[in-house]
Amino acid sequence: MSLVTLQQQMQAAVTAGGVPPGLSGNARGLEVYRTAWRVRLIEALRTNYPALHRVLGDAAFAELATRYLRAHPSQRRSIRWFGHRLPEFIAAHSDTLPHPALRDLARMEWAVCLAFDAADFVPLAFAQLAATPPDAWPTLVFTLQPAVALLELQWSVAPVWRELSTAEDPDRQVAPPERLDNTILVWRKALSPNWRSIAPLEADLLRAVAAGECFGQLCERAVASAGEVDAAATVGAYLQQWVADELLVGA
């Protein structure tokens, strides 16, 4: 048996159970590795979902993490990315959890997590826009930075996330979120993840930017979606905000 084969079988024994062929010695030693592996992955989930952990508490979160680990074992070399399917797992098992808003809370936390680790970029500057000839504006196409995410949520979890993320008391209790259809924009500015709630028109325009629509099409969309009289001014105001927030990387 080659060393590579033995290593692969040992890995399977630790992560999936069972004893690999050729393993000798006390089986309790193998169980130590299995336990350490589970504990480390549960710790990784707590790191990636701190607000969810604080809402559920140690015991309930550990139970959720253990069930998730059985259903979706880690498949990547880095445990930094462990937990990407937790929101959908929560949605599929919502009847076993204390509140249906936990899925939205998990989605928001994971998006903030991804924003921090997104690829570096050079933000679009106001000087670049100022240098654009007037006749080029109708066909101007913008590009969103890699960290941008638009989350369509059913619960007002953003205030809960804010309170739990800033509270120094780990036992602080927060009011349950309200049922509310809302859109959260998540992105990174400099080295810090950011988020804010946005209006339906801005969400619609950002989705259009992501789809490659030009400035002229954005203005047409503003008219059709919100009946804006001066669509160019409305889209221009959003554009100024996006540049200030470093949402765009090029034109």
TrEMBL record:
Pfam families: DUF2063. Residues 6-90 form the Putative DNA-binding domain. This is DUF2063 domain-containing protein. It comes from Nitrogeniibacter mangrovi.
